[in-house]
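User: Um, any thoughts?
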Amino acid sequence: MFPKDATSPRETTWNISFAGCGFLGVYHIGVASCLREHAPFLVANATHIYGASAGALTATALVTGACLGEAGANIIEVSKEARKRFLGPLHPSFNLVKTIRSCLMKTLPADSHERASGRLGISLTRVSDGENVIIYHFSSKEELIQANVCSTFIPVYCGLIPPILQGVRYVDGGISDNLPLYELKNTITVSPFSGESDICPQDSSTNIHELRVTNTSIQFNLRNLYRLSKALFPPEPMVLREMCKQGYRDGLRFLRRNGLLDRPNPLLALPSVPLSYAAYCEALPGWMRSNLSLVDTLAKWEECQRQMLLGLFCTNVAFPPDALRMRTPAPTSPAPPQHPPPC
């Protein structure tokens, strides 16, 4: 848990830990995007960034500087493919391991293993004795990807033969430790389940009962039961997009509560449902307000909404060029001279 009694959070050392959560890992994308955008020092200066299972995928993207928007879009696309099949991800034609490997190969930079070594901690479960192992060093990009594959490999769900890393067979890290180093007071814990994690949904429930699943605090309520049911069998894409946005909002709440906001959040001023042209204009920068027509403003707003619905909150995801290009207003022809009416 993050130290709340620290005199200056910016002067302490800290870790970040992402819990395993299956397809709900899109929540982590929203949190990571918020941290990267509004508190980049929190990511850059973290001693270690840990992850288990799906949390390892986000931790890897965050440490290596990969595009979080693309990572979030990948989760949604994979969930769409799973939902097309009878039995979803359990259908024989759906190969989750192959899909994860392909997505990581495409999104991670070539030197990702160098950026990750020493900072990234991936939680694994050793098959031989069931003990938890956290791996910190990676000799190649392929080995980093293989570590993620091992951390996300759920027996039977993903296959029958566990993958091998450095000559040892491992399975899902969440089985033995779903929230690495959660017990350290300087670890910022992130979970898509409401509970005692530093960054998590705040459900309005009076139920004080709590489950602790391999070190992950999960409040016993209906919303968490729903989330648990969707971790391995993904919900509709719109639900995943909303989870991503919720992760972004929960990350902002954590930063604001602990005085860690690096700069004001411009998106907080955007109305959720635009009411008028004036509302559109007020939500845009001054230089844009003075140059955009009503049509341009509407187009800009629609593109902004599309990006947010996709969960593309990271600063390294730019709007399409056509969406940002200023349109030159068509020249207006001079009005014909007005002749006085004949007497």
About this structure: The mean pLDDT is 81. The CA atoms of residues 12 and 152 lie 31 Å apart. The domain at 9-257 is CATH 3.40.1090 (Cytosolic phospholipase A2 catalytic domain). The longest strand covers residues 120-126.
